[in-house]
Write a structure and sequence with these properties.
Layout: H1 3-12, E1 19-24, E2 27-32, E3 37-42, H2 46-77
Antiparallel strand pairs: 1-2, 2-3
Length: 78
């Protein structure tokens, strides 16, 4: 299995998104749009929580971009 296939496999098996970051002073959490809490904690960095919340969507975009570029490379290579 290629590294890209491993990433796609992990992505398919996460809780469906999109996920959202909810942060207050001293607390932040990652939740689904349906309100299911995925991660929560006190004293976490809001920037970290925002990154985690966007990770599934960002990774899916990156995987699609890699696949698109690989197809272009195959076409260009003949």
């Amino acid at each position: 299995m290629s590294r890209l296939d491993e990433i796609k496999h992990r992505l398919v098996n996460v809780t469906p998104g999109p996920w959202e970051c909810h942060a207050n002073i001293g607390y932040c959490g990652i939740m689904t749009e349906a309100g299911e809490t995925l991660l929560a904690g006190d004293g976490c960095c809001v920037a970290d929580a925002i990154l985690v919340a966007h990770a599934p969507t960002d990774i899916a975009w990156l995987v699609a971009e890699v696949e698109r570029l690989e197809k272009q490379l195959d076409i260009a290579s003949g």
